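Continuing the series of single-chain predictions for the mutant panel. This is the parent chain; the variants come on the following pages.
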Amino acid sequence: MRVNELKKIILMLDEMATLIRFRAIRTKEMIEEIANHESFSNFIFLNILADCLELDDDINSSWRTAAARTIFLNEGDKAILMGVGEQIGGTDIDGQLSMLELSKTLAERNLLNAEDEYRTKGKMLRTVWGLCGIAAGIMLI
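Parent structure:
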């Protein structure tokens, strides 16, 4: 599940960069547009962020709260999201694009680590379940 969430974070960062680069869109409008985009309909972080923004109009604190509440992410993943939330809308367009590019690079690195971890643990789990199946078969005999 973490792998899927990291992929969505990377897509979201790309979409944010595109909206900033080509439309110079305001931060709150950008978040609303991304949250309403079909490809992000089941993205946990954006759903929590939308709920937080309804309660508190401060984008940065809502972003931090949503990042902290997002499940399936480890602390490093949440730190990347929180870093984006602290800086989004706080600099000029070039500064925001640079920050988004850096955050995307960090998220991609975390994605590679998560995929490697998934392969390693998945293989171990399949082996354990295979051995359990063999043990159950022997006990039946």
